[in-house]
Design brief:
The complex is a heterodimer of chains A (291) and B (156). Chain A has 291 residues and is mainly alpha-helical. Chain A contains ten helices and four strands. In chain A, strand 1 and strand 2 form a beta hairpin. Chain A starts with 43 loop residues before the first strand and ends in an 11-residue tail after the last strand. With 156 residues, chain B is mostly helical. Chain B is 45% helix and 8% strand. Chain B has helices spanning 13-29, 43-49, 58-72, 92-103, 116-134; strands at 35-40, 79-84. A two-stranded parallel ribbon of chain B has the order 1-2. Classes of the chains: A mainly alpha (291), B mainly alpha (156). The interface between A and B is large, with 72 and 96 residues. Strand 4 (276-280) of chain A pairs parallel with strand 1 (35-40) of chain B.
């Protein structure tokens, strides 16, 4: 490295061993031979706010973020209690918008099919229980499910399940050359799921499998790099004066009547003007339960 | 006056409205006209129709945008106007389209075209259903919650 003019800063170096074996050693790295100190192995590795532990169970990650969320909930306690302060509806909004995103940060790392998640979900459920108690101002011995139902908070394991499913589906909107899509079966890659042996496939537990399974039912295709999506090349950028929208104020009866009178006039004009075409469009969807 | 209709597959209401606008716009631009007036009950779908960013039903938006680009190019007097008309108002021309759409029921089939938002809302509905059924599970009753009266409408 010195040949290329690079200097290795050993003081800033870290060492980390991944292993799922029981009682596996976490040895130090002795660098005294090159005149620097011994590198001590770390228990956790933090990167982009994710806490990697040696077994990749992400218990430390969830513990950190559930504690952070719990601290936030405790701090929010000063904003209101059962008799004064914020309304329960406002407290719920605050919890859902400010606390849940903290608690579920990086959930795709550890929440996927086949992963042991009981301990992690339990930590988050404890945090949500405290939040539900604060929202309702209920007694601390109230049953968890009951206060969650009254506060309108879906149990955290179902919330995570929903987030995972929706997140998996979003992979369809990625560009076709994206690294994630290239690892799925439909796109050949040396490490693709399609190239795994049967034994490997049976043993594999990965968020990629969830993504692949989610995309099976989706027939829609997306083009995120289409020229029409580029700023400056969109239709409204090129022809802003050619397109107009005329909203209707649904709550005001007078404006609504005015809107319909204008539409009547337009239809009357169009019937005598061959250069104007009126098109009425509507769609109907059968509710999913009846499909 | 002419009409056309087509099945949109498994889609949300917004996707279906977007598809309906696509049918209308593509057909309208095939005629020799200068001004097109689209009457719809979803102005959100109309705004999506002329913006082909990545969203559920992007293919419909791209088809509309392509048709309109051809329609506008070299014709400064050509224009399209989207008018909002709520279905509840039962305004004459739109009511005909509404009646036609709601009276048509097409079975989804074995492998229907499925939009992104349809699957996303389905996954959300599945989780809400799981929550709803968890209230009736004997293992949870009395432990995690007591019986509620009035259903989910009495939430906060």
């Amino acid at each position: 490295m010195a040949f290329f003019g690079l200097v290795m800063e050993y003081d800033k170096s870290k060492i980390f061993h991944f292993s799922r074996a029981h009682n596996s050693s976490n040895p130090k790295l002795d660098l005294s031979a090159i005149g620097t100190s011994i590198l001590k192995s770390k228990t956790y590795w933090q990167y982009l706010g994710f806490y990697f532990d040696r077994r990749l169970s992400f218990k430390e990650h969830v513990r950190f973020y559930s504690t952070k969320a719990l601290t936030t909930v405790k701090a929010m306690g000063m904003l209101g209690n059962s008799t004064r302060g914020l309304l329960p509806l406002q407290k719920r909004l605050l919890y859902q918008s400010c606390v849940v995103p903290i608690a579920t940060y990086g959930f795709r790392l550890w929440y996927f099919s086949g992963a042991p998640t009981k301990a992690q979900v339990s930590l988050l459920a404890t945090m949500q229980r405290k939040a539900a108690l604060w929202i309702l101002g209920a007694f601390r011995t109230s049953p968890t499910g009951e206060i969650e139902a009254l506060a309108g908070l879906i149990p955290i394991h179902l919330h995570l399940k929903k987030l995972v499913k929706r997140s998996c589906l979003r992979a369809a909107t990625l560009p076709s050359q994206h690294a994630l899509l290239s690892l799925l079966s439909a796109h050949p890659h040396p490490q693709s799921l399609a190239l795994l042996t049967d034994v490997q496939s049976a043993q594999l537990r990965s968020p990629l499998l969830d993504t692949e399974a989610s995309l099976l039912n989706l027939t829609e295709r997306f083009d995120s790099l289409h020229p029409e999506t580029c700023p400056g090349c969109r239709l409204l950028d090129n022809f802003p004066d050619h397109v107009s929208f005329h909203p209707c104020d649904h709550s005001n009866g007078r404006t609504r009547k005015l809107q319909f009178d204008t539409l009547d006039c337009l239809c009357h004009e169009a019937s005598s003007d061959p250069s104007t075409l009126v098109v009425a469009t509507d769609a109907s969807v059968i509710p999913p339960r009846n499909m | 006056m002419s009409s056309s209709k087509a099945p949109a597959g498994r889609a949300t209401a917004l996707d279906a409205e977007l598809f309906a606008i696509r049918l209308g716009v593509v057909k309208a631009t095939s005629f020799d006209v200068k001004r097109i007036i689209i009457i719809t009950d979803s102005l959100t779908a109309a705004r999506r129709a002329v913006n082909a960013f990545v969203h559920s039903g992007q293919a419909h938006s791209l088809a509309i945008v392509q048709a309109l680009r051809d329609f506008f190019t070299n014709h400064p007097d050509h224009s399209i106007h989207f008018w909002d008309c709520p279905s509840k108002a039962q305004w004459s021309l739109h009511f005909l389209a509404h009646e036609d759409a709601t009276s048509t029921k097409i079975a989804a089939g074995r492998h229907p075209a499925t939009s992104l938002d349809a699957l996303r809302s389905k996954s959300t509905a599945a989780c809400l259903d799981a929550w709803r059924t968890s209230f009736a599970r004997p293992s949870s009753q009395g432990h995690y919650f007591l019986s509620l009266k009035g259903g989910i409408k009495n939430l906060l």
